[in-house]
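Thread: "does anyone have the structure for this chain?"

Original post by V.I.:
We have the sequence but no experimental structure in hand. Need at least a predicted one for the grant figures.
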Amino acid sequence: MPDFDLKITGGMLIDGTGKPRHRSDVGIKDGRVVALGDGLGAAHQTFDAQGLVVAPGFVDIHTHYDAQVLWDPELTVSPWHGVTTVVMGNCGFGVAPTRPEHRDLILRTLERVEGMSLSALEEGLGSPWPFQTFPDYMDLLERTALGINVAVMVGHTPVRLWVMGDEATTRAASATEVAQMKTLVRQAMDVGAVGFATSVSKVHVGYAGRPVPSRLADFEEMLELARAVGESGHGLIHYNVGREPLWGAYEQLYAVSGRPVVWTSLLAGSLGPGSHRLQLERAAQQRLKGLPIHAQGACRPIQFEFDFRSPVVFDTWASFESVRLADDEAQRRAVYADPAFRARLKRQVAGRGPDDAWFAGKEAEGDTRRSSFREMVISGTNDASLLERKLVDLAQERQVDPVDLMLDLALASDLQMRWRIALLNFDESEVGEILADDHVVLGLGDGGAHMSQLCDACHPTYLLGHWVRELGALSLEEAVRRLTSHPADVFGLHDRGRVGLGLPADLVVFDPDRVGAGPLERVYDLPAGQDRLISRAIGVEAVFVNGQRLGSQAHAAGKLLRQRSHSVV
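Reply from O.Q.:
Generated one for you, C-alpha cells below.
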C-alpha cells in the first residue's frame, strides 16, 4: 500500500515563511502534507519537480469574484497564476444579503463601480437567485464545486441596501437602521465571514452617478458595524479610503472592535510624487504602537482600459456630471460633442486639482516623472495605424487639442474605441520603495472586477517575473512570503500560505527562470458573450489545491473557508 496519494520530488522548497529554499520532496495524503525530506516512500502519483520551485499556493486577499463564482467556480484567471485561496467581498461590495426587490440595485451598482457587464451578471446569476441572506450565500458556496479555496467578507453596500433600499444611496441611517445592519454583520460573522468591508472612496460611484451606499454612512455607523466584528471574536475590517489615508479612523475602528484593520490603498503617486513616503512613515508609527493596522499595496500599475460608453476613469470629475446623468449612449454622444462640455473639461485638465492631477497636460515644474495623461494610449481600434499610439503624440502631430482629439476619435468610432491609462503606481522607482517595506500587504488584483478594463489577477506571477527575476528588487523567498503566509496571517487564514506538516496541500510549482504574466488578451467567454481581459501564466507548471492537481481531477478540490473565533473550518 503506497504511503502517499501524491509525492512531489526533486524540487526546491520555499515554505512561505521567508526561510531559505532547500531541496525537499513533499508527501501528501488525504489533502494534507504529511512528509517532507528525502527518500520518501511510495505514492499513487508522483510529480517530478526537478529544476522547479515548490511553494505554498498564493493567497489573493483582494478579489471581487462574489458573482462570478456562481457561473465560474474555478475563479479564472486566479488559479492560472498559482492562486489557491481568494478573499471576496472587498471594498464593501458583494451580492449578499440581497432582497429579491433589490437585485437590480445590486447589479447596477456592480456594473458601475466595479466595471462588471450587466448582461453577464444577469445571465450568470440567473433568475431567481438561489440565495437571499448572507448565510444562504455561504451555504450555497459550500455546496458549489469550487476550484480553489474561498473566504468571504460581508459588504457594507449590500447590508445597507437590505435595510434601507434605494434610500441607502441618498441619506444617513437612523439608529434603528444601524442596529439592523449591526445584526446582519454579526450574523455574517457568526456563519464564517472573515471580515467586514466598506468604502468611503470618492472614486466609488454607483448607479445613476450616485455614491455607493457605504459612502452615505456616518462614522458612528462605521463604528457600530466594527463593534459587530469585535463581538464575533474573529475577522478584520477592510476600509477602502481611496487616496487620502484616514489614520485616526483606522485607530478608532480598531479601538472599538479589537480586530485588525486593512486599508486600501498605499500606492505610488496617490497624493502626488513621493506621497507614499509619508504614508509608509505613518504606517510604521502605528506599528510601533502595536496596532494591527495594515496598508494594502500593489506591484502592478493601476491602469484601466475603457471606452466612452462607460468612462469609469472620469467618475469623480465635476466636468463629467452631465455624462453620469445621461440615460443612454445617444445622450452621452450629444454631451461629448457639446462645445460647452469640452470647454469645462479643458479647464479641469488645466487645473491640476487633487482629483485630476493624473490627467494634467503638463508636468509640474521640476517634476521629471511621467503623467498618466502623457502615457494614455489607444488600445482598441479598427485603424491599425492608431493602435498603441499615445494621445498626446497624435494631438501634436495633428496640431489639435488632445481633449478635442480624444472625444472626436471616440465619437467617430461610435464610442467603441478603447483607451488605456495608468492612473497610479506607474513610477517603478516609487513602487519599488513601497515593495521594500515588508509590512505592506500585497493585493489589489481585483479578480472578477473591471474585467473588460484590466486584468491584475496575474499579479503573483508578475511579481515573481518582473520584480524578482528582472529587477532583483526582492528575493524569491521574500516574494513568496509576501504572496502566501503574510496575507494569510493578516486575514486569519493561518493554515494557508505555508508548506508544513499537517497543513493543507495547497501548492504551486513554477520555473523561477521563466515565471511571469503573459500579455493581456481580450476574450469573449463571459455569460451573454461579454468580453474580458485575461493574462495567461508563464512558467507555472502545476497548481495543487488540497492535494489535488488543478485540471487533472474529475471533481473540484476548493473549499469555503469559514472563520469562527480565530479558526478556519
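V.I.: this helps a lot. The CA atoms of residues 267 and 425 lie 6 Å apart.
O.Q.: and The longest helix spans residues 175-190.
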